[in-house]
């Protein structure tokens, strides 16, 4: 095996069958750096690198790279060598005995319920973009969806008559999420009043549009959360993960069933039964703080 790139290409192709595009790109970026390490050591194939090559590299990174990033590099390297072993492209795994210090867990902060209301009500304008922003914030908090799930929503995924929406993960697997009346109120107002003004060519079926009529970007959502959090004078920097953690924390604080919360988040636990949607909706109605509000 004299070609460094061919096994990487095969590994990424296999990975793409079960992981998201962003995950595959992260692995590709990491492995490009590792190919450079082999070239610097004048090694012609992955099997020629022993544990000391990789240990030296990881130690060199310690002055410029966080421990979390180095642990990610090691994880990527281990996954890749596991693939090489399975494909009989190397005889041993040089990463097997490599160790890095454990990470100290730093949980993502979440907003208190009053702070969340402060954030949601910080959008006071009635322009098309402001109505979109309010609907987006309400939906993020009311469902705990990931940004990737939010941005791939179609108008047809919203069912106001029955009070739920359908989201899909990176594998295309769908799940139903109940909607609070206040989230429905702002979504309907946005769809009826603002979205037609943003949808310039009338072709985009996405729910959340930018000023040019296209789908909103991930960067735009991050910026919206940051600036709205600043406008609300919050001490925590608001990110998509903060919104998701706040949704989770508030439901659990109101005694929501843990399995229901995990299912809402799309985190199906191993061997856990699928909770019927009627049960999910009942728990949500009883424990989501803003469910009784009408908007």
From TrEMBL:
UniProtKB keywords:
DNA integration, DNA recombination, DNA-binding
Does the entry feature the keyword ATP-binding, yes or no?
A: no
Q: Entry's InterPro entries?
A: CB, DNA_brk_join_enz, Integrase-like_cat_sf, Integrase_catalytic, Integrase_recombinase_N, Integrase_SAM-like_N, Tyrosine_recombinase_XerCD
* Gene Ontology terms describing biological process: DNA integration; DNA recombination
The Core-binding (CB) domain covers 2-85
Q: Write out the coiled-coil annotation as residue ranges.
A: none
Q: Which domain of life is it from?
A: Bacteria
One example of the protein's molecular function in GO is: DNA binding
**What's this protein's name?**
Tyrosine recombinase XerD
Keyword DNA-binding on entry: yes
Q: Where would I find the Tyr recombinase domain in this sequence?
A: 106-295
């Amino acid at each position: 095996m004299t070609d460094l790139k061919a096994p990487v290409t095969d590994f990424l192709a296999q990975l793409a069958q079960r992981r998201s595009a962003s995950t595959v790109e992260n692995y590709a970026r990491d492995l490009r750096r590792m190919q450079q390490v082999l070239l610097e050591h004048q090694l012609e194939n992955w099997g020629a690198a022993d544990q000391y090559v990789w240990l030296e590299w990881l130690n060199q990174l310690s002055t410029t790279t966080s421990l979390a990033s180095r642990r990610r590099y090691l994880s990527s390297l281990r996954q890749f060598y596991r693939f090489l072993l399975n494909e009989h492209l190397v005889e041993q795994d040089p990463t097997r005995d490599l160790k890095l210090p454990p990470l100290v867990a730093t949980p993502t902060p979440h907003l208190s319920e009053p702070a969340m209301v402060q954030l949601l009500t910080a959008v006071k304008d009635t322009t098309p973009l402001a109505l979109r922003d309010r609907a987006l914030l309400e939906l993020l908090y009311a469902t705990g969806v990931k940004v990737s799930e939010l941005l791939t929503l179609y108008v047809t995924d919203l069912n106001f008559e029955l009070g739920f929406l359908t989201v899909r993960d990176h594998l295309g697997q769908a799940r139903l999420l109940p909607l609070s009346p206040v989230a429905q109120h702002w979504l309907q107002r946005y769809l009826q009043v603002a979205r037609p003004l943003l949808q310039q060519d009338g072709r985009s079926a996405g729910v959340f549009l930018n000023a040019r009529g296209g789908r909103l970007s991930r960067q735009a959502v991050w910026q919206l959360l940051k600036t709205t959090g600043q406008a609300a004078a919050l001490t925590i920097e608001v990110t998509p993960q903060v919104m998701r953690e706040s949704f989770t924390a508030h439901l659990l604080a109101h005694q929501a069933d843990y399995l229901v919360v995990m299912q809402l988040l799309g985190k199906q636990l191993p061997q856990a039964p699928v909770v019927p949607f009627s049960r999910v909706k009942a728990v949500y109605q009883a424990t989501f703080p803003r469910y009784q509000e009408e908007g």
